[in-house]
Design brief:
The protein is of the alpha/beta class and 210 residues long. Helix content is 31%, strand content 30%. It has a five-stranded mixed beta barrel with strand order 1-2-3-6-4. Strand 1 and strand 2 form a beta hairpin. The chain starts with a helix and ends in a 20-residue tail after the last strand. The mean pLDDT is 78.
């Protein structure tokens, strides 16, 4: 009987220690993430007082000085491509599902995807909202956001579709192939003070450090 009890206790002891170690690692990871978010929020606050830089200035800053340009304020001058419009699906606002409207913006040397804001979607998920594309020459200000592609259960397929295209995730490499022009590796989120676009309800950090 004693040997039997010892046999039962040892596996449970190993299991308990493994779970305890995992929880300790998880708590340390959460702490690190909270610190990262606090630093990023402080950085974004500082950027609000900083003059916006052009694309070329920011790319030079990143390439030559190794600067992390995420969240940097940016100024753009160019035209929107009226034929290329993406609708990022499953974007909520005040308990309403909708889309973020993304349109390609062309400068003299670059093409970049611009997040124009949020629009409400239809209860019928097969019905795509009617969006008035933006045309003409514009001078814009926004902030750079590098996009992390999360877990994908189903690979996005863009064959046989018509514009605007509804997408589940922002995949800039695939978008570049689709539209046959190289997009910069980040998205520009329009400044909330810009008059063009739609509801600008984005937050750089959805879940606060707390």
């Amino acid at each position: 009987m004693h040997n039997f009890l010892s046999y039962i206790k040892v596996p449970w002891l190993v299991f308990t220690l493994a779970v305890f170690t995992l929880l300790i690692k998880l708590s340390l990871w959460q702490t690190d993430r909270a610190v990262e978010k606090e630093h990023r929020l402080a950085r974004i606050s500082d950027f609000q007082q900083q003059a916006a830089l052009s694309i070329d200035e920011l790319l030079l800053l990143e390439r030559d000085k190794g600067e992390n340009i995420n969240d940097f304020p940016i100024k753009l001058s160019g035209t929107f491509d009226k034929d290329i419009l993406f609708l990022l699906d499953n974007q909520a606002n005040n308990n309403q599902l909708g889309y973020r409207v993304l349109q390609v913006f062309r400068t003299e040397e670059h093409s970049v995807l611009v997040n124009l804001g949020w629009v409400v979607g239809s209860i019928n998920r097969q019905e795509i909202p009617k969006i008035s594309v933006i045309e003409g020459q514009h001078n814009l200000r926004g902030n750079i956001r590098f996009n992390d592609v999360g877990i994908q259960l189903i690979e996005q397929d863009f064959t046989g579709l018509s514009w605007p295209i509804r997408v589940q995730q922002i995949e800039l490499d695939k978008f570049s192939t689709l539209i046959k022009q190289k997009l910069l590796p980040f998205v520009v989120y329009l400044d909330t003070k810009e008059s063009i676009g739609y509801k600008k309800n984005w937050q750089p950090i959805v879940m606060p450090p707390e």
